[in-house]
Design brief:
Blueprint lengths: L1 H15 L3 H12 L6 H17 L3 H8 L1
Helix pairs in contact: 1-2, 1-3, 2-3, 3-4
Protein name: Tetratricopeptide repeat protein
InterPro entries: SRC_co-chaperone (IPR052758), TPR-like_helical_dom_sf (IPR011990)
């Protein structure tokens, strides 16, 4: 769970600095760590949806929200 939180925090830092594609990689990789952790994964999916919106991948953003 510690690694999962670190991955999320790294993605957040990248997002805040405008490095959206790199943040996307961190969020995607973090989602693979513990597929049953609904609490963290819901936040990761939300964050990845924001990234997808910023990079113009609107279909992917919608998919992350559903």
């Amino acid at each position: 769970c510690k690694l999962l939180k670190e991955m999320k925090e790294n993605g957040n830092m990248l997002f805040k600095s405008g490095r959206y594609r790199e943040a996307h990689v961190f969020y995607t990789d973090a989602l693979k760590i513990d597929e049953h952790n609904k609490d963290i994964n819901s936040k990761l999916l939300y964050n990845r949806a924001l990234v997808n919106t910023r990079i113009g991948s609107l279909r992917e953003a919608v998919a992350d929200c559903t």
